Amino acid sequence: MIQISNVSYQYDGAERKCLDDVSLTVQDGEFVLLCGMSGCGKTTLTKMVNGVLLNLHSGMFCGEVTVNGMNIAESSMSDICRKVGSVFQNPRTQFYTLDTTSEIAFGCENLGMPREEIAQRVSQTVERFGLEKLAGRDIFGMSGGEKQRIALASIDAMDPEIYVLDEPSANLDTHAVEELRKILKTLKAQGKTILIAEHRIYYLADLIDRAVYMKDGRIVREYSRQELIDMPDSERLETGLRNGDLRRFVPERCASAWGDQRIVMSNVTFAYRKERILDIRSLRVQNGGVVAIVGENGAGKSTFVSVLAGLRRGAKGMFLLNSQPVSRKKRLRQSFMILQEVNHQLFTNSVQSEITLGCKDYSEDDLRDIMAKMHLTDFAEMHPATLSGGQKQRVVLCSAFFCGKKILFFDEPTSGLDYYHMMKTVQILNNLKQQGYFIFLITHDYELLLSVCDRVLILEHGRITDDYELTAATMPRPHRFLFPFAAEYGNQDGSEAC
Question: For position 484, what pLDDT does the model report?
């Protein structure tokens, strides 16, 4: 059992508490979702339970946290790890070896288990999670979903009683999310206690026992799974909670403002180590709309946008902008790309300077306006590295919107965002397309795609296999591609999947 009693915590140098008199009890075998807007204290609470906060951070702590009778504040990380397994948003941060089998065995080795027992545990975990095809692989050559499965397997091999997960689906495509869900379902069936902080709710709808909603470092209320599914949109905007049943999601859409400017790609190819990974025969894109780039991990989506943006040398073929040839350097000067891993493009020591980094001239009023829209005003002078994942995402989004370049590329811009800030992003994207920007959006976010995208390009093996405008008549097409497992989620009412 996890027992959190009157816990408050304030990081050194922070102006306010990130946890404020929090009390929570999680029973043995219970599956509990921590939810709320980014920055509400979810991640800090998970770090409190797994010992990371009290052992590896410095700050002011009061209260008591016990896990199966063990006082976390008085216990070493090695003792805590025997009972609590942790899986982070980015699995790369918890890898210690170079191949998958060694990684699964690493935790057991670190606990000093006999070699025969380690081999048996690794074998059982590989079989239980269906990882035979991933055994012995180079970790850094795998997709995000495969890395997340290995991270979970490495914890499972140690057989902890409690699993603590922090937004494990944030960077995963739909198929990887389904694999994650299957693993969590297996752990639940084994009677494991699971505490998970997450924005995506739909894949957990049939697994959670209850949801704990946090705001400003406090636990405000609890929801049952059915309450999450039945929640009206007005309450979702207020709470920031995503949809529990994506089949019910029908957003209000802003019409495209297709303009008369054109980007044309013809016979564009790109090869890596003599292997062709991009082959675009012909593509014409107008300004004034949001073009979604959809496909599984490894389909060539990131390569496509980086070649078009001029970030990759060596691409062959013809690029035209408004009927004029445009070189790689010219495309680069007119483009701005937001990466999926936002930490790679944070360079300054304050939020305000980060947003204005690429701007020669700008209006202070415009700066204050966009920071207010994205709820960043209170963080203007803070170092970006001190923010939560969702807050960092919003900083980079603001810098893209503020730079004034006309060709914008977004790689999973809402991966760490709650529903409220996702809809704020939708509003800003709608405003940009009304102003005539070219906007390309790589996404696996079904809610974002239906809310703002006007055209969908499906990529498979570096080729465009489908291309259509998104309308009421064509919505089932991205539904089937982005959400092929609808029948398994949210069927408490007995309805059929789309």
Answer: 62
